[in-house]
Amino acid sequence: MIPGRTGGIYIPPFRMAQMLRDVEDKASPEYQRLTWDALKKSINGLVNKVNATNIKNLVPELLAENLVRGRGLFCQSCIKSQMASPGFTDVFAALVAVVNTKFPEIGRLLLVRVMLQLKRAYKRNDKPQLLAATKFIAHLVNQVVVHELVALELLTVLLDNPSDDSVEVAVGFVKECGAILQDLTPQGLHAMFERFRGILHEGEIDKRVQFLIEGLFAIRKAKFQGFPAIRPELDLVEQEDQFTHDMSLETELDPETNLNVFRVNPNFAEDEKAYENLKKSILGEDDEEEEGSDDASDGEDEEESDDEEDEEQMEIRDKTETNLINLRRTIYLTIMSSVDFEEAGHKLLKIKLEPGQEMELNIMLLECCSQERTYLRYYGLLGQRFCMINKVFQENFEKCFVQQYSMIHRLETNKLRNVAKFFAHLLGTDALPWHVLAYIRLTEEDTTSSSRIFIKILFQELSEHLGIRLLNERLNDPNMQESFESVFPRDHPKNTRFSINFFTSIGLGGITESLREYLKNMPRMIMQQQKPPSPSESESSGESSDSGSSSESESSSDESEKKRRKRRKK
Q: Is residue 402 packed enough to be buried (19+ CB in 10 Å), middle (13-18) or exposed (0-12)?
């Protein structure tokens, strides 16, 4: 026996097995202690080994252990492993979801401990621990182990007194579970986004956190693309079989920490026998299936093994993204070798694209356009043709517009000019809907030098393409005013003046006539909102005006008499 670093004693596995065999009384405290240590080591080992590829194989091994006795150990091991590696949170949540279908009390115990950990971290301002706890709860919501009302309550608490850290944690939480909240409670999620919008308008948080909120709005507009609720390989439980827990942050919770410590059980033998029967009822079907598969013919086994090898090879090719690289190379060579946009469009449509690969065509077209020394109308006409042919390409260009504007500060001036002219062409030909301009917020605080150059080139190209009169009519369309509110802000005089001065400085002051009229009438509107004066005040003002007029008439008569006297003397 070797003493360990924490004061315990390390027992080699063969020595542990020998000690278990040597114990004659299977209900003695010594035997219970040895089985407890073995159970703890086994649960910790299985939880630490789990990942997205082997979770299906480890679940039967985990259920073979006495989880009723070691439920405290299981919850403790899951929470510690998730804290150590938050990147595998969705894997641990999937493991808990499977266990929760068989033992709902274990799922509830884990949720209670995670909630208490979250409360403790929130009170102590422990940001890393708070991020880990909220991420765990988010993925438990995705697995329908936790009710969606718990997620909305948590967001309400985080955004009640917003600080930089609490808002950042809330943004990360919505990214993780926003897709499923959009399906389950769209109105509740809309209310949370309105709260985010209010925090953004208040402007009391840091610029970095404001950009995080704006990025969250862009993700929501893209329907949480890139942030799926559950990965396909982790979708192990049907929603009908899942048991959902609901609890409030305000209720007092008992973590049952005594379950983490060994205690002598007087009914140890009976409990072990009962769990053996329960284990057979849970895993019995799997055992029968395995026996039936052993009786199959050798020829079928060889065919299945060949099919499995082919599938494994396909997975290897997909993981290296060889097919994706070849597709991008084909698209690039087709674009660069075509004589005109019609030939390029005809060739590109012949390329077989799998579902979801349409975005690669949009990205490559935009990338080729940005790499040119000067903007070529060839790319604009090609993008216009694709938008007119299929609505999927139009939606993808909308996502590209949002993504390019959010990262516009990373582009060089030449690339920035080409991208702006490309999108101006799509907008001018109605290939791209004008509501994409809603993502642009033209204020001094929300723009950088790069974004101002982008907006300048975009609107100058639109005015050259449409003419100032037609452009003004488009921007004054009453049906599209909600989309143009961010470009022509009317929330504050400072932002309104900035927008007017910006367009005037780039030679497009004509499109700000309605905004100038609004700014001119703003004091009058404020005066009209005030209360009318009382009758006593109006009478006093009338008397003062009468006295002032009489005094003026007297002074004028005195001056006329003086002039007459001077004339007589002369």
A: buried
* Rounded Cα–Cα distance for residues 214 and 489 (Å): 17
Contact 329, 360 (CB under 8 A): no
When pLDDT is cut at 50, 70 and 90, the band that residue 97 belongs to is very high
Extract the tokens encoding 138: 């988010």
**Beta partners for residue 2, in sequence order:** 10
Convert the pLDDT of each residue in 17-67 to its tens digit. 677 666 666 678 888 888 888 889 889 999 999 998 999 999 999 988 888
Q: Considering the entire predicted model, what is its pTM? A: 0.50
Mean pLDDT confidence for 383-407:
90
Q: Across residues 415-431, what is the average pLDDT?
A: 92
DSSP classification of residue 246? -
| Rounded CA separation 264/163 (Å) | 48
The conformational region for residue 126 under phi > 0 = left, psi -120 to 50 = alpha, else beta, is beta
Q: In whole angstroms, give the CA distance from residue 13 to residue 42.
A: 11
CB contact burial 294-310 (16+ within 10 A = b; e otherwise)? eeeeeeeeeeeeeeeee
Confidence of residue 130 (pLDDT cuts 50, 70, 90): very high
**What does DSSP assign to residue 101?**
H
- d(CA 379, CA 395) in angstroms, rounded, equals 17
Residue 10 forms beta bridges with which residues? 2
Separation between Cα atoms, residue 465 and residue 422, nearest integer Å: 12
**Is the distance from CB of 137 to CB of 114 less than 8 angstroms?**
yes
Chain-centroid distance, C-alpha 435 = 21
State the Cα–Cα distance between residues 218 and 394, nearest whole angstrom: 17
CA angle at 105 for the pair 101 and 109, rounded to the nearest 5°:
115
Among left, alpha and beta (phi > 0; psi -120 to 50; other), residue 370 is alpha
Residue 418's Cβ-count burial label (10 Å; 0-12, 13-18, 19+) is buried
Of the candidates 65, 17, 60, the one whose C-alpha atom is nearest the C-alpha of residue 43 is 65
Q: Is pLDDT at 268 greater than 90 in this prediction?
A: no
Alpha helices (H) in 295-337, listed in sequence order: 298-319, 322-337
Quick check: 58 and 46 in contact, CB under 8 A? yes
Residue 463 neighbours by CB under 8 Å, 6+ apart: 471, 508, 511
CA 569 to CA 132: how far, in whole Å? 103
